[in-house]
Design goal:
The chain is an alpha/beta fold. It contains 21 helices and 23 strands.
Length: about 575
Amino acid sequence: MDGSMTLRDRRNAAAGMTGIYLQGLIDRGIDQFRERNYEAALEYLDKAIQQDVEPPLAVLDKRAATHARLGDHEAAVADAGRMIRSDPRSAMGYLRLGQILQNQKKSEKALKIYERVNNQLTKLQTLQAAEHKLHASLTPGLLLDPLKVLPHELMLILFSYLDFVDIINTSRVCRVWRHAVGSNPDLWMNLDFSSAKRPINFKTVQNYIKRSAFKATRLSTSRAANDMQKTVCYVASRCRSLEEVTFNTPLVSESLSKAIPLLSNLRKLVLSPSSETSMSIFTEVLLRCPCLEHFVCIIDTRYGGSEVLDRLKELPVLETLSMSSKGPVRMQLEPKFFKKLQAVRNLSLRNWELWNSVAGEKFSFGIDSLQSLNLTSCNMRTFIGLPTSIRELYLNDWDYTAFNTPTNLPKLERLVMTGNHANLQSLQNLLDTKPDNLLYLDLSNNVVPREIFLRLLDAGCFDNLEMLVLNAVQFFQDERDYGRFAVDDRFVETLVHKLEHLKRFELAHSVVTGVSVKLLVNEMKETLEFLRLDRCPKVSKDAVDWARNQGVQVSYTFFEPLFGGKRIR
């Protein structure tokens, strides 16, 4: 080892010396450019570029700027073009070329270059900003601030049509807009945090409530923070004018019990399914909020029984009530509770046990104003008597034996019976009075007696139907022959000539073929607008395309399982 350098070491040393020399030339050129000695800067930059096979874009950009300062626009454009050819996906060359064209008073040409490149390369944010700036300079009329041109009162009227998220974005435009929006409490009456992407903490809610001058009338929360219980109590104590509140966050019973007495003007209350709502809290809400018109909650049966409902008096204002129960035991509801709801028009019950303590009597709701009734997963100990005023009836996962006697529903317009096993008489008893206004019938995921269905069809019960939903429906002949069959072409042929007003027909998970599709479209040209044929394996794509060409909207999705195939390594 004599310490002599190898050929590789000598080459690396030479390259290092060359790099140091080139960097020195570049630094001297930049220094001369900053001192506005453009001729000397050009000399250094020329030497650096001549000795480098692939000069950096920054060096070419600096020399193009030097040429532009000396008035040699052709050489500047040549350097900009060299930058673009060297790296087409970089914004530096396009930006320099645009600036040179603007110096030559060719701004429109520069704008066209920006637009063309931005259409091809969408991720060049600096180039997009340059395009927007140049476009704004060419159209100065669009830069006028509406707050300086329009009267303040007119701007507030325009702002009042914006929702809560848009109001927040408007306040972030500039300081002038922030002051204009933030100083008007009327714009902050509806505090809707339901679309928030992050948890809403106490300070955020407190800030916006102050902007409303503590006069907010609507509040909707989501994505609970750790201090949500504190937030609920603060909102209830400061905003006494609240009319609508939606808590999409879990709340404990303690915070609810403190907030309820302070919400005397409340008209609408929606509580999260994860909130600890007991029957006592439910009763307290109805007692403490005399103006309440809309109430939605899920009651946890682990916290007390339904005996506290006896404290309630008649509720003449409540129009919409949705009650669901959760817990190991279903809670019981008696007719005496519903007799206090004489103003209710929309009633939804889920997972309850309906029964009448008086032996031998029907369970009657006794609500003459009731128009919409939704019963889901409810049990009963006695037969159910329905009000004659009902227009919409939803029965999901329901035992139809509760309607074993004819039911008078002359105003019925919508009937939904899904996820059930109907006996031979239940469907006929519900439609015994032949309602003339029945427009919507949904029997999805159901086992339906074919004999009763056809009897109702012949009786004219479905003459005015505009929508019929038979998704995943199975029919059977009678109790002796329990052979089930899905909706097929023969069944559709039976229906098509008796449903003259049908606009929407859903037959998902059936065994109909293209014959039924063509029959429906041809026979119902004047009325049919939509067909649902999802998961119908016997319907061909050609039949679907033909129906769409005839002007009928068709939903057709069918997912075939993938079997076999080669393994890709």
